[in-house]
Amino acid sequence: MKQILCCLPLLGLMLQKAASQSHVLNIDPGKTVQTIHNFAASDAWSCQFVGNWQDSKRNQMADWLFSMDTTASGQPRGIGLSMWRFNIGAGSAEQGDSSGIRDVWRRAESFFGPNQDYDWNKQAGQRWFLQAAKERGVKQFLGFLNSPPVAFTRNGKAFAYKGKCNIAPEQYQAAADYITAVVQGIRRTMGITFNFISPVNEPQWDWSDGGQEGCPYDNDEIAGFTKAIAKTFQRAKLPTQLLLTEAGQLNYLYSSHGKAARGQQIETFFGKGAPEKVYKGIAGHSYFTTSPEDTAIAIRKRVAAALKGIEFWQSEYCILGDNAGEINGGGRDLGMDAALYIARVIHTDLAVANASAWQWWLAISPYQYKDGLIYVDKQETDGEIHDSKMLWAFGNYSRFIRPGAKRVMLSDEENTGKDIRISAFVNTNRQLCIVIINSGNRQETIDIRCKGLKKGNMRSYTTNSEGNLQPGFVNGEAVIPARAVVTLTGNIQ
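User: That's the sequence. What structure does it adopt?
Assistant: Structure tokens below.
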């Protein structure tokens, strides 16, 4: 009986190996697709508060988001975001309850004062995170507006009335001067130049319920506002580019989707080439288009087909709605269910829509919702902080796929209808990064074949229920645990 018991662990290993499936992955590093520019998240809305919390907590959150450091054992300290999105507030916070925005956390300060002057001490918590990002090596920064400043809106509020654009054409220039002043002020006071300004956000929605700062635009209004900003940037000799249009749903990029004046945005803004100071790429949000998977893939194929020489940036996402019953946005999920879903969305945006950037919504959330990489208590002066598996699964991409990386072709590009999804990238230093999602309940084995890659010389970083970017080595075939996101790295000779 003792002899039989001694054999049981070996039997278990044999059964486990038999239960796994082996995949052959052929990678051609000579066949590249899109260039990856960044992975990012935004400072809305929590950083205005948590940026003023005690040093130990705000530094821990900044490390989780931005750090590329490792411990002595090789454990990553953070996910190494390569861009940070800064919310340029409209001034609803100074209005208080009279702002009409019910949630204090969804109001935002403005640098523009009531006496037509600028106060660069405003948005202090957000500026702390902006500086923390810079200190940890982030080199790309984007400033975005949910609403023009209340001094220039039609109704004096940071949200609209009856779905009408809340800035009149005669105020475009004043708002453009303000945005230019913000870029110059942040550069002068912090040594940070915004690479991009995103002047409109989800222009298809009405933004008329007081839920947060927001402003709708039709395409003609976006064009008029953008031209005013572009000319002002040119006069000021700013290197900053404008990123359009942050469409609220990907369908609006290639179709009217029921809103003719606010759709067909690729053709509308880039059919004859991008205007001066406008980045040659269009931004859209993956909300409401991620389930079921065949629908997600079909939409992203249409995005890719419509681009015709310009880039696509997926510039905002978190889990909203019921997603065809696959996962519900309500309630926090610090575990792997939400993380695996997010990883699948990232994979589909990169591998099917050919996204050149992928950006998350709330880096830090106080809400009972699947919208945060980090979660905090909804307390303005102090509270507990919690990382999530969504943070670390995102890190399987953001930490290892660096700006300038090229996505390369695989033997099975989309990996659709399977538990395994794979994408591969080559960084500028010739480091190969392979991201493998295994959403199934059994481990899988991957035989990696790539010209110039020396087998047995790869590292692995695994995010699952047992760890976050846990480092390891690959000797021979790569074994991918069940319900995990794994990044494999190795150098191509």
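Residues 1-18, 413-417 have pLDDT under 50 and may be disordered.
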